[in-house]
Amino acid sequence: MAGVAVGALALTFSTSVPTASAHGWTNAPISRAKYCQAGTAQNCGNIQWEPQSVEGPKGFPNGGPADGKLCSAGIGAFAPLDDQRGGGWPTNNLRSGQSYTFKWHFTAMHSTTDFRYYITKNGWNSNAPLTRGALELNPFLTVPFSGRPPADISHSGTLPGGKSGRHMILSVWTIADTGNAFYQCSDVNF
């Protein structure tokens, strides 16, 4: 009987506590998930302990998380990432058209297909959750990658020209040997 009680307690514990299976986040531009983990952004929910775990179906933009849930990858526990907070998220200050070094930090190095970066269209509604309709669906930077990345990786690219004011960059790390990708939203100001 004691074994059954312990098993039930373990099952309850394992289903009510988020897993910390680990993966990765963007450091440049700094993502909402990382700002939450660092304490720079408040009232973030579980993402503050798991900035590396924003994992959802791959195949963006044809597949992937549903519109309005792109920043959380559709994970209910990470839903605060989808809230635009009336522009209250910390921003990364950038210059339109500048060369930029994008950086990821990984806690588990998965076999990788590529890294893709998308940006919001001029005139997007920054008060509404992020949707495909708000994004330029051709990535402004695609970095093919074969194999497992190191714990920290950088790659250079050029930010889109003709941007001013507040925008969002959606970074997608596509995993080669699973059906998933990792999604990171970074608020930027040009």
Automatic annotation (TrEMBL):
UniProt xrefs under Pfam families: LPMO_10
Q: Where are the transmembrane segments?
A: none
Which interval of the chain is the signal sequence?
1-22
Which residues are in the Chitin-binding type-4 domain? Answer: 23-188
InterPro entries per record: Cellulose/chitin-bd_N, GlcNAc_Chitin_IntDeg, Ig_E-set
Q: Which UniProt keywords apply?
A: Signal
**Entry keyword Signal:** yes
Is Signal given among the entry's keywords?
Answer: yes
What highest taxon heads this organism's lineage? Bacteria
Q: What name does the UniProt record give this protein?
A: Chitin-binding protein
Q: Where does this protein come from, organism-wise?
A: Kribbella antibiotica
